[in-house]
Amino acid sequence: MAATPKPEELQQIDYTPPEKEWMEVPPSFKPGTWCYAGKPQILEYLGLPNPRKWSPADEDWKFPDNWKNTILEGIRERLLKFRSFHLFMDICVRCGACADKCHFYLGSGDPKNMPVLRAELLRSIYRREFTLTGKIFKKMAGGRELTEEVIKEWFSYFYQCTECRRCSVFCPYGIDTAEITMMGRELLHLIGMNTNWILEPAANCYRMGNHLGIQPHAFKDSLLGLVEDIEMETGIKVDPSFNRKGAEILFITPSADVFAMPAIFTMMGYMMLFHHLDLDVTFSTYASEGGNFGLFTSHEMQKRLNYKMYAEAKRLGVKWILGGECGHMWRVIHQYMGTHWDGCDELEVPVSPVTGTRFEHAKFTKMIHICEFTADLIKNNKLKLNPKRNDPYRVTFHDSCNPARGMGFFEEPRYVIENVANNFFEMPENTIREQTFCCGAGTGLNTDEFMEMRMRGGYPRASALKYVAGKHDVNLMATICAIDKATLDALVKYWIPEVEIGGVHELVGNALEMEGQNDRETNLRGEPLPVEPSESPPAAEGGEAGAEGGEA
Amino acid sequence: MPNIEVGGKQIEVDEDGYIQNLDDWTEDVAKHIAEQESVEMTDAHWEVVQFLRDYYKEYKIAPMIRILVKAIGKAMGPEKGNTKYLYSLFPAGPAKQACKIAGLAKPTGCV
Question: How far is A53 from chain B (nearest CA, A)?
Fold first, then answer.
């Protein structure tokens, strides 16, 4: 694995475009800027074509026979199937409004990371092969031949896009550039050009119910380990249930909340909340993943992985599903699930058993976000909270791309944070809410061999964070996505190590007043809390397991 | 994908040197990987490696660092059940480096 250049080096970004025309500039595969290829056994498991050993660094990518025809047929089929795709291929006027909105462009200076040009990589083939002007005027009409070089270029740049959709916010035509990347990746899958970090989680999820490949006994034991930790911090023994038929609610969250740092602190918060409310809720060791790496693969794969959550809800006979702090799960639920199937009639419109609130907007999905659920509890005065226990933290909030731009989810997490923490500060307004900057490693790019691009792509987010850290001494960035929790942890260690990453329900867990609890001398990370919060300096450090654990 | 050769046997590893077939693991393989990682194996190292292998045998997944720290603390006492001690043994990170030497697969997903 390539060593990542130092921050001072990465900051020297050259925005001068190459002298040659873009079609003449071949892609380069410098270590740190591409992800390892899908392993053949994983492709076989998922039934994907052209399983073989190869590497993007090789000259010969082992293209399958007749690959050109496969790609062109793939485009033809998708133009017919997805009107959005057809429209997005036709309507761009290259105004350039998106050009400087992409975190990968801002962090790399590579013009092919301008969303307009990234789309042009595919559009040029569309023009040449599927439009009359392109067929006649070829390059003069912006068309070009489909060659192996083009495929390599697609691989490079469709895997240097996190489908975050920040560019789309600024497009006067509303072109969803993420969908262009999604089409690009789908086409690449047809000929077996894909990355292992996306496919192995998808295969794990298909086979074992979650991305990490946590088997049922490991899932249960991991949560029981957290039960011990909660008892140590609070004196309360929570009692989660697993695969319990007849429960009212099924809770589904990313498997990283079960098995990765710092997401497990968020899991502790969920479990404390459920126990405190005596909520009739169960975990499933089968539907043990909220995330859906199918979204980063193809519509077909996405559909397969989404459906299992509802199959399990039906099997257990629950009324509705409560979803955890996950990012892209919510994009699938809100924007794609309705195109896959007719929804689950066996479930009911979610109603909070504590407040009686009926979540009418979720009548199709039968699923609400834990932050909606908790915000409703707070609004109805159902929780006793002591925000002072979060006083060592000076908190900012990172809007995760998918809940933010995919479902307009801005207020609920903020409302919760402001009720559980006394010190909350926003990053600059063009870097939050619908204009939020990506963590730099979403859509399955959160792998170590891609670290240089991750640090480049996360640079805008880190810069905004650095601004509030300097201005308001922010030392914790809360977020509601498991990929964020893992990738931002690496990002802040690189760019701004004085800041830690946490979850909203971790803060809820810290503040929650539970009946019968002890004096709560530590937070959920085991870090000691100041006895007199107002007189102690911020940023409690130490906490053996928490402070140094930079690994999963 | 590249191979490493240990005791005359070719062993398949991934791009980052993790062995691909967990049954290929032997103490000699571990020593070979440790050498490449510039880790000199002592009894203390083997203790952790053995713990990881036992954990993997039971759970089929590499433990996250917190579980590792806690379980080692329980089994071997608090002076070993802390991240500082584990980092002193495996400077590139107890989870990743120790798992690599122990022949476990890398975890994937939102991690």
Answer: 7
The candidate with the shortest Cα–Cα distance to A34, out of A201, A196, A264, is A196
- List the one residue out of A511, A268, A546 whose CA is nearest residue A389: A511
Give me the DSSP letters along A506-544: HHHHHHB--TT-----B-TTSPBPPSSGGGS-S----TH
CA-based nearest distance A485→chain B, Å: 8
Same domain for A189 and A228? no
* Closest partner CB to A552 (pick from B1, B16, B107): B107
| Catalytic residue list contains B99 | no
Farthest CA pair distance, chain B? 41
What is chain B's percent helix, strand, coil content, to nearest 5?
50, 10, 40
DSSP secondary-structure letter at A120?
H
Question: Would you tell me which residues 243-262 of chain A have a C-beta closer than 8 angstroms to some C-beta of chain B?
Answer: 254-256, 259-261
Burial of A378-411, coded b for 16+ CB within 10 Å and e otherwise, reads beeeebebebbbbbbbbbbbbbbbbbbbbeebbe
What is the value of ipTM here, to two decimals? 0.93
Considering only CB atoms, B65 lies closest to which of A210, A213, A549, namely A549
* Claim: this prediction has a pTM higher than 0.80: yes
Q: Are A306 and A337 in contact (CB under 8 A)?
A: yes
**pLDDT tens-place string over residues A157-177:** 999 999 999 999 999 999 999
CATH 3.40.30.10 fits B3-102, yes or no: no
Please list every residue in chain A whose beta carbon sits closer than 8 Å to the beta carbon of residue B61: 212-215, 218, 259
- Residues paired with residue A385 on neighbouring β-strands, in sequence order: A512
> Is there a domain that residue A39 lies in?
no
Q: Is there a single domain that holds both residue A408 and residue A459?
A: yes
Q: What is the pLDDT of residues A379-425, one digit of tens each?
A: 999 999 999 999 999 999 999 999 999 999 999 999 999 999 999 99
Chain A residues close to B58, C-beta within 8 Å: 217
Rounded to whole angstroms, how far apart are CA atoms A9 and A299?
39
Is A550 in contact with B66 (Cβ distance < 8 A)?
no
Kindly state whether residue A198 falls inside one of the protein's structural domains. no
Pick from A201, A217, A261: which is nearest to B65 by CB? A261
Name the nearest CA neighbour of A230 among A523, A28, A21.
Answer: A523
Active-site position among B8, B43, B110, B111: B110
